[in-house]
Amino acid sequence: MTDFSFPPATVALAQRVRQFVIDKVIPFEKDPRLTQHGPTDALRDELVALAKAEGLLTPQAPVELGGMGFDHATQAVVFEAAGWSTLGPIAMNCAAPDEGNMYLLGRIARPDQVEQFLRPMVAGDRRSVFAMTEPGGAGSDPSQLQTTAVFNGNDYEISGLKWLITGANGAKTWIIMARVPENPHGPSGPTLFLCEGDTPGIHIERVMDSMDRNYVEGHAVVRFEGLRLGPTQVLGEVGSALRYAQMRLAPARLTHCMRWLGAAARVQHIALEHARVRTAFGKPLVEHQGVNFMLADNEIAMHQCRLAIRQVAWMLDNDTRARHESSIVKSFVSEELFKVADRCVQILGGIGVTGETVVEMIFRDMRGFRLYDGPTEVHKFAIATQLLRTGTAFASAT
After folding, report:
1. pLDDT given for residue 321 in this prediction
2. 261-307 pLDDT per residue, tens
3. 320: which residues sit within 8 A by CB, 6+ positions away?
4. What single DSSP character describes residue 25?
5. Residue of 83, 376, 359, 96 lying closest to 219 (CA atoms)
6. What's residue 5's pLDDT?
7. Low-confidence ranges of the chain (pLDDT < 70)
């Protein structure tokens, strides 16, 4: 049976995280280093130092690596509190793509790779990328991978073009997905590689202009040309990249939902306060049914999202893969929270589309949430496919 209660210490921690974000992080939302391409590394480093000083760094990583060791259920509470500002997860070193990459490295990296790549990430000393998406190939369907890693018996030569590679500019830990063609020297298939960001052959061509600006250094176009990596730089096993990507996705989908739920709570708070004091036609906006119904719809949606997130977090903590359920939650939560943000813009009226409040920025940033780690339509297709195989959860339980 799912238990939705939390120990008093967890509740107190969430309150401390929320207050840390309000007191120390929110002032940086007007910092010029929060650019159209996201926070700069200099801003990120300053924020990380603040969280480290508060003892709030990397809540999701194991204690033995320097993290706080929280399970998924605790992360749900803490990440929501951190998400009160889009800079909160960056400060606490639990933002994408680093959070998902840390999870993956913790599952499949060798001990020497953990020491070189993962431990410094947990300490907040370096950022990472997961280089999979391609202009004409891998994306929602990673089986279309076109980047190749040709093995000559000694090393792999990686060639290809990637785009929408979040945080590429300045990242030091690189996880690269490439297809190893059939060869006489060993196994083949989609494979993950692990290397330093300054390895010759990694060319960052440009940072793409995008609606969102909540990811450090934005999203880049990257070309691999003349990139040579040895067999020791394979992450996991050759040919297993698609399986590893799925291993990473279920918890990563869920943590996206946790963080954005916090941002939705922030815009709801701003809209509610605005509706209390703004008047129209002789009374506060909140007393007009057209406005208070929108606020009520927001509260209903966030309550449903919170319950869905916590139920799947419980499943992951109880050794359930929850691939199907995480798809359900990702598609549902991303759509519902975007509606929450949209209604808050509407409640604010004209200032809702300006920088006078943070609502406009969160609205733009949240639009991408419906695409990250799989568009809603891809998840719905996967959900429907599962239904055809097994029927509904209710039918299978009776």
Report:
1. 86
2. 999 999 999 999 999 999 999 999 999 999 999 999 999 999 999 99
3. none
4. I
5. 96
6. 82
7. 1-3, 393-398
| Mean confidence (pLDDT) of the chain | 95
- Quote the DSSP letter at residue 155: -
User: Where do the H-state alpha helices sit in 63-144?
Assistant: 72-82, 88-91, 98-108, 111-113, 119-122
User: 161: Cβ–Cβ under 8 A, 6 or more apart, which residues?
Assistant: 134, 135, 147, 221, 222, 223, 224
Question: What pLDDT is recorded for position 398?
Answer: 44
Q: Are 292 and 343 in contact (CB under 8 A)?
A: no
Q: What is the pLDDT of residue 139?
A: 85
> What does the alpha-carbon distance between residue 361 and residue 36 come to, in Å, rounded to a whole number?
11
Measure the CA–CA gap between 159 and 217, rounded to whole angstroms: 24
Q: How far apart are CA 298 and CA 309, in angstroms?
A: 16
Q: CA angle at residue 194 from 228 to 318, to 5 degrees?
A: 155
Q: What is the pLDDT of residue 395?
A: 52
Which residue's entry shows tokens 């291993």?
247
DSSP output for 175-209: EEEEEE--BTTB--EEEEEEEETT-TTEEEEEEEP
The answer to whether 267 and 351 have CB atoms below 8 angstroms apart is no
Residue 150 pairs with which residues in a beta bridge? 157
Mark out the alpha helices in the chain (DSSP H runs).
8-20, 41-53, 72-82, 88-91, 98-108, 111-113, 119-122, 241-277, 289-317, 323-348, 359-367, 376-390, 393-396
Whether the ω angle into residue 97 lies within 30 degrees of 0, i.e. cis, is yes
Cβ count near 253 (within 10 Å)? 26
Helix axis angle, 359-367 to 241-277, nearest 10°: 150
Scored b (16 or more CB within 10 A) or e, 186-211 reads: eeeebbbbbbebebeebebeebeebe
pLDDT digit string, tens, across residues 50-62: 999 999 999 999 9
